[in-house]
Amino acid sequence: MNSQLRQIPQIETLLRLPDVLSLTDAFSHSEVAAALRDELGDLRAAVLAGKRGELPDFNGAAFRAAVEDRLTRIRQPNLRAVINATGIIIHTNLGRARLAPEALQAMQDVGAHPSNLEFNLETGKRGSRYAHAEALICELTGAEAALVVNNCAAAVVLGLMGTATGRKVVVSRGELVEIGGSFRLPDVIAQSGATLKEVGATNKTRTRDYADAIDDDTAVLLKSHTSNFKIIGFTSSPKREDLAELAKAHDLILMEDLGSGVLINLAPYGLTDEPVVRDILAAGVDLVMFSGDKLLGGPQAGIIAGRADIIAGLRSHPLLRALRIDKLSLAALEATLRLYRAPFDPLKRVPVLRMLSEPVIEVEARAGLLVAMLGDMGVTGAEVVPASAFVGGGSLPQQDLASFAVSLHLEGLSADALAEALRKGAMPIIGRIHQGRVQLDMRTVSDDELRSIAAAIGDIASR
Fold it and tell me: Residue 119 pLDDT > 60, yes or no?
């Protein structure tokens, strides 16, 4: 062991070797030195652990290739594209909604050139970034006015700070939700400077519970859509129309944190528990907040829609600058919203909605095509199996979607090892493990990703 360790050369020696020195043509001297340091460190660790036989030929092509591979991996971006084969359409860990080509093109156009972000082309004077999407949002939701910030949590904070700081916000105990990242609605209310007044019980809250809680310090009645969990059984909650009437009688604001923002009725596709924004506003809710990157199918954004007088106050709030949406997200959001207007069909043009509404027979056909491609490559151990997909993103937790997956088993590889190999490929593929096999759900995979998936599996099988 000690003799092997003594045979490992110094980094300075390796840097003078012609094959290693040639790497500095593509990589910096410091990068090559750091890669050598890591490569030798791994080598020493393997020798000390007794897991190393003969040392490599440090003058050979194999050692140079190992160093170059390490350098290439280091150069890869940290934030990368992956293939989502999990069956979770809005996967928070995988970037939520896939953007439509029109949204990507809008980001490209605005990012590559100067834009009229805050410049009015009609008057030649300073304009507002918030004007670009407002008319579209109002048209699609029936709102009097709208405002866009960087995410839905920001929209809730701004809405409460602009209307209820130093006053009370009445919320049902059954709607005190926790969203992703362990952020809880009571904490959000506290940060806004308002005071939370809980009413009702976890499973039952009535209109009179809200009425009994109202006093001179009350400013807002707040509803929070429980999109990431469901209480079933002995339950009840007031109708929005009844709360709207109560709020109006006491000159209060009825506000709803919707989370996901659905602009069209998804009930025909089996998704019946997600309310449409237009219907919520029509029921008398004064202000509704929802996300751009969930069921709306656009970029990360928080949208506030509702009464013009309230939104006018939010637009002048000092916090707005800290929460403002950036130009690329704004461009993508506007382009996505335009896909909801004729002549476009959002169910075909918005990727999230297309995946939700795609007939299961087409998903099955995609799975069959991948298995056939693998068969042509000589890869066995792949079969089409029924599966369940999910909306994800904290939406419709108990409603699954019929789907089909390709179930994989490669000889000599455990399910964990295969999942790791797929995950660490040139194009990472993220699936799931079910009953000891890797499953790649085809509802969240597009047709043009099949070739990349087949090539990755074929490469793993040939090792």
Answer: yes
Cis peptide before 343 (omega within 30 of 0): yes
**Can you tell me the mean pLDDT for 96-100?**
96
pLDDT in the model for residue 309:
97
β 437-441/395-408 pair status: antiparallel
CA 298 to CA 337: how far, in whole Å? 8
CATH number for 242 = 3.40.640.10
Same domain, 14 and 110: no
Query: Is the Cβ–Cβ distance between 392 and 443 less than 8 Å?
Result: no
358 and 307 inside one domain: no
Pairing of strands 395-408, 382-392: antiparallel
- pLDDT digit string (tens) for 401-417? 999 999 999 999 999 99
Residues 142 and 285 in one domain: yes
b/e code 258-276 from CB counts within 10 Å (16+ = b): bbbbbbbebeeeebeebbb
CA-to-CA dists, residue 122 to 116, 118, 125, 127, angstroms:
11, 12, 8, 10
Q: Show the domain range for 428.
A: 83-92+353-461
Q: Are residues 305 and 236 in the same domain?
A: yes
Higher pLDDT, 400 or 145: 145
**Which pLDDT score is estimated for 231?**
64
Asked if 298 and 390 sit in the same domain, the reply is: no
Long-range contacts of 210-214 (CB under 8 A, 24+ apart): 210/170, 210/172, 210/238, 210/243, 210/246, 211/246, 213/168, 213/170, 214/170, 214/246, 214/250, 214/252
In the beta sheet, which residues pair with residue 400? 390
Q: Is 182 exposed, middle or buried, given 0-12, 13-18 or 19+ CB atoms closer than 10 A?
A: exposed
Residues 252 and 331 in one domain: yes
Query: Over 60: is that where the pLDDT of 1 sits?
Result: no
- For the chain, how many structural domains are there in total? 3
For residue 179, the Cα-to-chain-centroid distance in whole angstroms is: 13
- In angstroms, rounded to a whole number, what is the distance separating the alpha carbons of residues 438 and 332? 34
Residues in the chain: 463
